[in-house]
Amino acid sequence: MVTAKLFIVSLFTLVMGNPLGRRSMQLLESRSDIPDGFVNSGAASPDSVLKLRVALAQNDPAGLTAALLDVSEPTSANFRQHLTKEEVEAFVAPKPETVTAVNQWLSENELTATKISPTGDWISFEVPVSKANELLDAEFTTFTHAETGDQSILTLAYSIPADLVGHVELVHPTVTFPNPFGRLPVFSSPTKLSNSAVNLTSDAVPASCANTVTPACVQALYDVPTTKATQSSNTLGVSGFIGQFANQADLKSFLTSLRPDVPSTTTFALQTLDGGKNTQTRSQAGIEADLDIQYTVGIATGVPVTFISVGNNFQDGALEGFLDIINFLLGESNPPQVLTTSYGQNENTISSNLANQLCNAYQQLGARGTSILFASGDGGVAGSQSSSCTTFLPTFPSGCPFMTSVGATSGVPETSASFSSGGFSNVFTQPSYQTTAVEQYLSTLGNTNAGKFTKTGRAFPDVAAIGENVEINLDNEFGLVAGTSCASPIFASLISLINDRLAAAGQPSLGFLNPFLYANPQAFNDITTGSNPGCNSNGFPATTGWDPVTGLGTPNFPALLAAAGA
């Protein structure tokens, strides 16, 4: 490890030298299509400056995967014996020969790089388009998103010196396009609906919950206790992006009305990166940020919640902070035990190499004991709200096998929410922990939707929670929202409550959830009705057992708690 660190340090020292003869180049990545909504606006200005990021080959990614599964499989002797920061970094740090090879390449081109990940497996440097074209044998072009007018400088293909193949995994941003279809939940019915007088019992859900979902409804649906968490070391992280601010005053109004048993002064901590902030001007409150904070603080009673605001000074380009936030948390000694994110994009906008790199970052955090949850998306089998597809569009990062994808349900009794994105990844293969469940579903499905999806891909979502007619407070008004972005913070809150009980018993957190979840299908309320239409089809039907609409189903908190051994 000491030797590796010395090489990493040397990589980021400014080196000067005369360029040598041109090396033999080899194609690293390419794409033949331009994603829907983008048009080619011509060659990029040669003077435009690009901030390129380079992913270096990690020391032993397969070893990290094996270690992650070893601490995540319930049958393993090492179940929940999470890795330390140093143990994870030993798998990830580039080998000395990789550092040397890349250092030589930079030296020949009179470039200097900056480390942008804890172990130096990601570096960055700036070059004008003219030099980037030469350096990567590329043709950087301006692509315009017709609907928004946003422009991106990208290329459809690029190469690296042949002797760097095996040392350089990818250069970014190159062939990955930004997300054109992202959408925030719609806030409706600004007049507060009458539900405060509902009397809840342990064996019934009030009829009003079919039309207006409150924290009390979530507690009744999933038998979630109101008992306050006791372990301050157990924390829940909420990701914030695209200038979404979580408002303290809105949270106070929410708690006063909908969780009167919780002190209205209850608040959340703040972390920022990439120039992020959390402005408290009430009119600037973000609908997504308010939703996520209100349903984590409001459900995970007493669990310390941190809002992690990612600004627009991205280090990861078109990933728009997705990798930055993980690298930020990987650099911490004690990252949150749960992280929920309500954003995503269509898988076909991101290169497979880059998707794998981000997925590998998730397994690093998972190996250290963090449960990573993402909303699965709100476009049914059309992914993130695209309507022009002919084959089903999986979302990212739901296709990554090292995180937990959360779909949505609607109504009481619960049925599948029609917008709940789900399906099969075209990038990631099916992990062993879900093979039996998925095979059962495919057998039931038969030839329905044949040719529209990849049967061998990683299947998602993994689980679900209520996601329609969810009441929040926004800019001092009560109203309803819908989306899988409601379901992810709700499910994450239940996991945080279980972690609290585990910590109180001196046990480690759940960490990477999926092997545990699929091993305990009895801990879920099976959702067997509904579907997720899109791409001019009815989508996938929900059925008995796992399905690509609601996954294993919605949580039964006492059963999950018992399965966790808390």
UniProtKB/TrEMBL annotation:
GO terms for molecular function: metal ion binding; serine-type endopeptidase activity; tripeptidyl-peptidase activity. Its main location: secreted. Residues 1-17 form the signal peptide. One of its GO terms (biological process) is proteolysis. Pfam families: Peptidase_S8, Pro-kuma_activ. The active site is at 288 (charge relay system), 292 (charge relay system), 485 (charge relay system). InterPro entries: Peptidase_S8/S53_dom, Peptidase_S8/S53_dom_sf, S53_propep, Sedolisin_dom, Tripeptidyl-peptidase_I. Secreted tripeptidyl-peptidase which degrades proteins at acidic pHs and is involved in virulence. This is tripeptidyl-peptidase II. It comes from Antrodiella citrinella.
